[in-house]
User: Fold these one by one.
Assistant:
Number 1:
Amino acid sequence: KAKAIATPTRTKEILQKYGFSFKKSLGQNFLIDVNILENIVQHAGIDDQSGAIEIGPGIGALTEQLARHADRVVAFEIDQRLVPILDDTLAAYDNVSVVNQDILKADVRNVIEQHFEHGQSLKVVANLPYYITTPILMKLLMERLPVENITVMIQKEVADRMAAEPNTKSYGSLSIAVQYYTEAKVVMNVPKTVFMPQPNVDSSVLQLKLRDEPPVIVEDEEFFFEVVQATFGQRRKTLMNNLSRHLKGKIDKAELRAKLEAAGIDPGRRGESLSMEEFAALANAIYEA
Ligand code: SAM
């Protein structure tokens, strides 16, 4: 059996063979620990029926582990220099396709239709480029792709925010945005030493299980997210303060106060204490006004 790509020696060999230099601007920090990768693949629930979608395969460290366990793997990689390298490092696997596209611009739904069976269980697995973690995840969620779960290595601080519960330091509009679409959980914290080169920040593996239905019913999704954002606007201010500022000219203070009270929400509370259900009640009450 060939030596795994994700070892320090093999990684260095590959980089040297191709004279590859890391592009910091593309968030290139490659994984050099096979145990971590096997753990990620396990958490993702990849089996021989699964289709795996990877974002940013690099030189193929994770791609290889996915190819070994999944039915098929499709990997989006923006860096053209990596395409011939992946051709070489993944030559032993006939179930991998590399798509040389920017994930933020790609028509992911179309790529899915081209590469996977209709109704196949699909999972996104990636060690994401950290400079665009949130745009990538929000794109995947808002497009409502036919994906079962998303298991990603990201910056620890961002993972904590996405999975945060009310009344915690990390809780904010990003927690609501992500948890509206998914059940979010941090499944692993990962030391910097498993990357080459080592990043400046700590990392975690975040698991998102996509919901079939949103957890709350909102009259208007856009307005709901607008209210959430406004409520967290200035964290030290009350929700009444933040909201009346945001809705100035659209609804007067007395009416807003009445709406909040009708929705059973004390105007003196802070955004960070509100649950998703309370945000929904709040947004729906104001929307009707
Ligand atoms: N999966 C590899 C690993 O774990 O060793 C590499 C992970 S590295 C953190 C992130 C990868 O994403 C790099 O290969 C980088 O070139 C790629 N990347 C950066 N921006 C991208 C984008 N917009 N679309 C697709 N891939 C991107």
Number 2:
Amino acid sequence: MRQVNESRVVKVTNTRYREHYHIQTPAGWLNDPNGLCFFKGYYHVFYQFHPYSAEWGPMHWGHVRSKDLVHWENLPVALVPGDSEDSGGCFSGSAIVRGNRLYLIYTGHHYYDDDNQDHFWENQNVAYSDDGIHFTKYTGNPVIEAPKDNSQDFRDPKVWEHDGQYYLVLGSREQANNRARILLYQSDDLLNWQYRGPITESRSIELEGSMWECPDLFRLNGQDIIACSPMGIQPQRHRFLNLSQAAYFIGQLDYNQAHFSHYDLHLLDYGHNFYAPQSFLTPDGRRIQFGWFSSFDNPMPEQADGWAGALTLPRELVMHGDRLGAIPAQETTQLRTGEVLNTSAIIHSPHRFTVTDPQHTEWDLTFDLTGYDGQVSWQLANTDQVLISLSYDQGSGEITVHQHGQASDRYATIGHVGQLRARIFVDTSSVEIFINDGAATFTERYYTDDQPVTTTLAASRPTATAIKAYTLDM
Ligand code: FRU
């Protein structure tokens, strides 16, 4: 198995933006979460990794594991590219346990010409491990090659088991019409795969995209869901404002017909910085998702310090009415190192709360809005500017999130609610906001240097508010 060349590995030169309780690289670049699974007593998370610089480059699979989903241990890099079937990179993929063995299924990326990254081809490969630490690439790779009508985009396999058979979906763009589609494959041993065909296709590039990266097909509350990361969607008023989005379809997969019938595409997260999420099932049956806490089109000031990117906290996917939502995984309470506020107050004019470590704090706020008509807000600021703010307007039923430095705000409509609960996780350079147990999430980065950070609550009319705050650390 190939090894990382330790003498070339980049180093972190400044810790000012380093996260305290999110998964990040020891140094170097990170993008998508990959291969989420539970194997032999540990949760495993892999991620797209470039160890030699803080820029995207030939993709490796970085690796961490945990006993509890929140305290992570760094492991050796699991996949190093450069073999004939992954000459240009080990791109995203997923994991599955079969017997005593952990299998990774990932995309091999290949350039026709090393000096031109615009022209490439992709295939699907397998690697396996019996100890969950050391991986062997399967000698029969590739296990899947693109069908004839495919464009060069053919990647990000997500594997699962159903009725004693293995299935995988992957993201593809058809050559003739340039549209996104999801392809289905079936196998009885994870090594020999039968092509079942496209199960759904984008109805229009403008509305649904030209490529769905990182598709994730899973079942929740009796429905099949495909989460994916569409490219090329045009903004629709307050929706789809990012260049790269994370979204989902709810529907039903007909395994016999190889067809996924579904409703419209919805956003998974309403923030500026959420892309390429993946999910897996915990041993106790919860569907847990991690996302990349950024996307290719966002500034990353931490690159100047020798690293880039983080993963979100683990989120439990839940149905909220007829929509998919997320709540913080229950294990995140184990990150609390102290309770710093537990009070109720009537909030009216801006009220600044002093906590010991404002950049490493979880806020659990409940605004009582019965018989109310107005706005409430939370904000994180330094002496010069508001870094992140959240406000809810009961008249429009809309939440607005502002991030300093971003050209436009982000929005989610949750309707008229009697109570607004916001769980807000602040880390050194990130904020994750969870509204009303699955109604909406916002994933945001912020960057501030050497300045005191403050937290302020405000309301346009007096509002009874329950306020809890905890310091957090991994
Ligand atoms: C999504 C993505 C995937 C690809 C990987 C490469 O962010 O573009 O489609 O496999 O990143 O790093």
